[in-house]
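Reopening this one. Same input as before:
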Amino acid sequence: MLRRKFIQQTSLATAATVMSKYSLATNGIDDFPVVRIPEVQRRFKSKSVEKLITEIKSKIGNKELAWMFENCFPNTLDTTVDFEIIGGKPDTYVITGDIDAMWLRDSTAQVWPYLPLCKEDEELKQLIKGVINRQVKCILKDPYANAFYKDENKISEWKSTDITDMKPGVHERKWEVDSLCYPIRLSYGYWKTTNDVSPFDEQWIEAMKLIVKTFKEQQRFDGLGPYSFQRNTSWATDGVPLSGYGYPVKPNGLICSMFRPSDDATIFPYLIPSNFFATVSLLKLAKLMNHLNLGNNTKSDTNKLALQISDALKKYAKANHPEFGEIIPYEINGYGSYNLMDDANVPSLLSLPYLDAVDLKDATYQSTRKFVLSESNPFFFKGKAAEGIGGPHAGMNMIWPLSIIMRGLTSSDDKEIKFCLDMLQRTHANTGFMHESFDKDDPSKFTRKWFAWANTIFGEFIWKVYRENPYLLN
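Same output, byte for byte:
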């Protein structure tokens, strides 16, 4: 199927072949094979990243996790970035891995774990600044698109199948609320880490205003808005019903999202995790705009929109579950219908504290967390190898390492964190890397052997545990 063109799957025999190939080359840690790309082939080198790898390798007792950290944490820099200076400004194009296109979501998530190192690494700081600049170009090209090419004249492979306004340079045009939240997250995080405001020029301001405009359009108070999407495909999750506008919603202040962060179509267009993400993103944008003295009207419009979404969430984003009590639904339509589930992709219900969207101790979040990590969630899978959340994108019984990592990142319980570490350690299929998903009973059956977001966030998880709970890594 065309949709699965880039999804790669391996068998146990393939994994064994990979291990055999590298069996003679060792990195000095209990004979674990060298699987990281050779230094001469790495796309970007960071002294601060290498220093951290050396430190963690030398100080944690679990040598397999140390080896996995060495492979995964630098994977974005090693294999996916294209950095240069264009028009006197840093520019960084970031592919996802085995798909040669840049997602606004993935590109932010892939470089996010490196932000704390920018204070001591000017070259890394410039690389991330370049990601912000590239994202601005993408947003200005089409705020409704989710993925882009570096070559702005390149025609997408989806051009012949998608019924939407496909511009040259756009890889895919699936409207996802989170796609416009992630660039705000990166800009705000960069500013708070570095105090540098140089990326926030006139083009950046124009892009941020366009984000606010697009969010307002998709509140649908004034009609359906300019976006529609249909695809000639047999995959139901790749198309949008009712002439490409989705099932109807009752306007209430929330933003419609035709697709989830998995790139699968929503059932009910009010995707709740993404609206939580939009609220916190807009509040952060307003703070940054205030710091830049962009004017009361611009800041006020942004704040007003954030509070409008927040009020709607408080009123409508709740459901009563017979076992778990009041929880947050995954999707609603404003008419009283809701979808109780969670997906592995971020933003998810599980990830809300990670995104600063809710307090980890919030009672409703904790009830929701218990629900999504139970078999009451239709996409929570528990098997011989592990347990975790998946989603329609990779199919039934396929657990995403991303969900196990996020479970660990949002836990304050040592036993749960250790449980997540153990599952990740035993499900990488002897590759030393994370994958998109793996079979709940047989992790040697996995999708996407080169998926940089999963790799880098695994490194973020290990680094967090190293700082806060180092004894769990022994």
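So the earlier flakiness isn't reproducible anymore. For the record, The domain at 2-473 is CATH 1.50.10.10 (Glycosyltransferase).
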